[in-house]
Write a structure and sequence with these properties.
Largest sheet: 5 strands, mixed
Shape: globular
Protein name: Succinate dehydrogenase/fumarate reductase iron-sulfur subunit
Organism: Methanoculleus oceani
Strand content: 5-15%
Helix content: 40-55%
Number of helices: 22
Distance between the termini: 65 Å
Radius of gyration: 25 Å
Number of strands: 16
Strand order of the largest sheet: 2-1-5-3-4
Structural class: alpha/beta
Pfam families: CCG, Fer2_3, Fer4_8
Domain 4Fe-4S ferredoxin-type: 122-154, 174-204
Domain 2Fe-2S ferredoxin-type: 2-91
């Protein structure tokens, strides 16, 4: 047995004006779960504590709560000293029990199709990734879109796709999905991160529903414009200035001895919209002894099309990009755009390894820059944090480059999944939440590793927003100036 202290959110609408925390010291066995700690509070301290539970084995979903801010099942999460337990981010009935009925009411039930046969083996395999949902609503509590829109949420859209795949259902699931906010999802994968069953709702449901909608001509007009641009030019952004690829040779040699070699996938934004950032990244690579090969025949990775369900042209993009790097014998391809990196890693089958620039630099080890005299915070791009599982590497590099680093809670900025272009009012509302978080840190600069996040946060906050490689280069330039001054 061990004793732990926990904080539990309490709220009785009959007597409380608002929720408050109570602290309890409880004795639990080694390996005890959060649910056991709640039982101990109930049995030893206060039998009026309200919380839901049933199976106690992760199968029913009834005991979902937030532990230290993250939604999950109380029966599966290990109890630890100092943890804070709160209800899901839904209307609270009492203490840790929430009103789930409005969401549950939106979850579609099967509309039996007359004379429908059983699903085929192929249809069953397609349904499998979606049928494990236990309707705990952890994903609903975590979804950023639900904070600012009338989006029905991941649980509801998952069910729409499951029924769309089932030949026994006769409902119009695409129209239903659109009415329930199909294009409001930013594909941030926060729902997958907190799902006890690890259901990939964005990849297996949202994007597939959008693909079905596209076949019926129901894609948002702005998304259709982007698709036309990709098909006509190979790029998802218009050329407004000399591009990165127009400014660099195919091989960029380092300043000193060669320590390594990578291919560089530049991406549409860094090629055409903000080429200077890509040029900054090349200077950082040169400074650290890494030869960079830049195939000039590379094209859009296809992410804007995949995320919005416009997939008919994606296979051609994949083929061109794979051939561009493979025929040059490139073994490692580096990206500096989180969206491109996630797409190449998760949506392609490549004969080469794909790594983010922060992975490359931390693996090789960098020349230490002079520290910039700024207080910096870091924004986790969704497609880097959850799309690629990269969190610590950018923080390691940033701490080496600035006087002070301060954390900021991770949340989608609102730019992804076609939302910035297709549902700008939602993107603006999520950007405002990022602005609040930035101001709370007191940071002088926001650093990130994604051009979409960089653009969107810059539109949402007064603080300057910079790519991590630009920050490193500024540190190197400061170091050069200091050396020159002391010479």
């Amino acid at each position: 047995m061990k004793e732990i202290t926990i904080r539990v959110s309490r709220f009785d609408p009959a007597v409380d004006a608002e929720p408050h925390f109570e602290e309890y010291a409880v004795r639990v066995n080694e390996g005890a779960r959060v649910l056991h700690a709640l039982h101990a509070v109930h049995d030893e301290h206060d039998p009026t504590l309200a919380y839901r539970y049933c199976c106690g084995s992760g199968q029913c979903g009834s005991c979902a709560v937030r532990v230290d801010g993250k939604p999950g099942l109380a029966c599966m999460e290990e109890a630890r000293d100092g943890m804070t337990i709160e209800p899901l981010d839904l209307p609270v009935l009492k203490d840790l029990t929430v009103d789930m009925s409005p969401v549950i009411a939106k979850i579609a039930r099967i509309c039996p199709a007359p004379d429908a046969g059983l699903p085929s083996l192929e249809e069953i395999e397609a349904i499998k990734p979606l049928r494990d949902c236990i309707e705990c609503l952890s994903c609903v509590s975590a979804c950023p879109a639900l904070q600012v829109t009338e989006f029905a949420g991941p649980t509801v859209l998952r069910q729409e796709m499951r029924l769309a795949l089932d030949p026994r259902d006769s409902g119009d699931r695409i129209t239903d999905a659109i009415e329930k906010g199909l294009f409001y999802c930013t594909t941030c994968k926060r729902c997958t991160e907190v799902c006890p069953k690890e259901i990939d709702v964005p990849g297996k449901a949202i994007e597939k529903l959008r693909e079905l909608a596209n076949r019926r001509g129901l894609t948002l007009p702005r998304h259709q414009e982007v698709a036309r641009l990709v098909q006509e030019t190979g790029r998802s952004v218009e050329r407004t200035q000399p591009t990165f690829l127009e400014q660099v040779p195919e091989v960029i040699e380092p300043d000193g001895p060669v320590r390594g070699e990578v291919g560089f996938f530049v991406g549409c934004m860094f090629n055409g919209r903000v080429p200077q950032t890509a040029l900054d990244a090349m200077e950082v690579m040169k400074r650290n002894g890494i030869r960079v090969i830049v195939p000039h025949d590379q094209v859009c990775c296809g992410s804007p099309l995949i995320r919005t369900g416009q997939t008919s042209y994606v296979a051609d993009l994949k083929r061109k990009n794979i051939e561009a790097f493979a025929r040059r014998g490139i073994k490692t391809v580096m990206t500096i755009c989180a969206g491109c990196g996630a797409t190449l890693k998760n949506d392609y089958e490549t004969p080469f390894e794909v790594k983010d620039v922060t992975e490359i630099l931390t693996e090789y080890g960098i020349e230490l820059p002079a520290k910039l005299d700024v207080r910096a915070t870091y924004h986790d791009p969704c497609h880097l944090l959850r799309g690629q599982g990269i969190s610590e590497q950018p923080r390691v590099l940033l701490r080496q480059a600035v006087r002070e680093f301060v954390e900021m809670p991770s949340q989608c900025c609102g730019a992804g999944g076609g939302v910035r272009s297709g549902v700008p009012e939602e993107a603006k509302a999520l950007g405002a939440k990022r602005d609040e978080a930035v101001k709370a840190t007191g940071a002088d600069v926001v650093v990130t590793v994604c051009p979409f996040c960089e653009f969107h946060i810059a539109d949402s906050t007064d603080a300057p927003v910079k790519n991590l490689t630009t920050i490193l280069l500024e540190g190197y330039k400061k170091k050069d100036a200091e050396r020159k001054g002391s010479a």
